[in-house]
Design a protein that fits this description.
234 residues; single chain; Alpha-Beta Plaits; 8-stranded antiparallel beta barrel; alpha+beta; globular
């Protein structure tokens, strides 16, 4: 997977139904441009659940893990815009992980993605990582319907910030796997076979959760026309 950096922030969440339309407007026209103007942020993508899971999955690709603890990023989190503060109260069930990229295979982002979250059992990290990086993931991008695969490992504890206090406590993300492709059916077949819950548990994973998403919007920092958020009044 041609990720634009060596680390990523992964978020999964729901939005109160009455706020979904405004959330997507804000997220596209203010929030993504604001985040992508922070030094080190390379690309943001918003995904919508096809079946199962939280409605939204958001991934920010960053140059390095330290970007997610930088003064510039924390300044934004502690000084939300009025529109951001308005939207944060509508967030539900936020899961947030600041992750290193343990392995990446294939190229590009397919329009559909299989997101798997899980946690290594005590003492099983090395065996689980070896299984995924050496046995399972390298061959996936060449399969019909698929394009890329990436393993993420939580590597940094998020700090408490003003934005988090507005929306409530975030649950952690331990390890995660994102496989993308051009056909959702191929990802569904993968989730039912090679990457099903039982196989993860056999290799020492706990807390397995999987869902299929479709990409709704993506923005790269090089595409920004201005360095700051939009000036739309809300």
């Amino acid at each position: 997977m041609a990720l634009l950096g060596k680390a990523a922030m992964l978020l999964s969440f729901d939005i109160a139904p009455e706020a979904v339309a405004e959330h997507d407007d804000w997220h596209t026209h203010e929030h993504f441009p604001e985040r992508l103007s922070i030094p080190g942020f390379r690309r943001g993508s918003r995904w919508i659940a096809r079946e199962g899971g939280s409605r939204y999955f958001v991934m920010y690709e960053v140059e390095r893990l330290e970007t997610l603890a930088s003064a510039a990023y924390l300044e934004r989190l502690n000084n939300p815009t009025p529109w951001t503060a308005k939207m944060m109260v509508h967030y539900r069930g936020m899961k947030r992980g600041l992750c290193s990229i343990a392995g990446s295979f294939g190229a590009g982002l397919g329009q559909a993605g299989l997101l798997v979250r899980f946690k290594p059992a005590a003492g099983r990290q090395a065996a689980l990582r070896k299984w995924l990086l050496e046995e399972e993931l390298p061959a996936l991008p060449a399969k019909p319907g698929l394009a890329s695969a990436c393993l993420f490992e939580s590597a940094l504890a998020p700090q408490s910030t003003s934005e988090q206090r507005i929306r409530g406590s975030d649950a952690p993300v331990d390890w995660a796997l994102l496989v993308t492709g051009y056909e959702a059916d191929g990802l569904a077949a993968l989730a039912a076979a090679d990457l099903r819950r039982e196989r993860f548990e056999q290799q020492g994973a706990t807390g397995y959760f999987g869902a299929i998403y479709r990409i709704a919007y993506a923005l790269e920092e090089r595409e920004l026309r201005t360095p700051g958020p939009s000036q739309r009044a809300h």
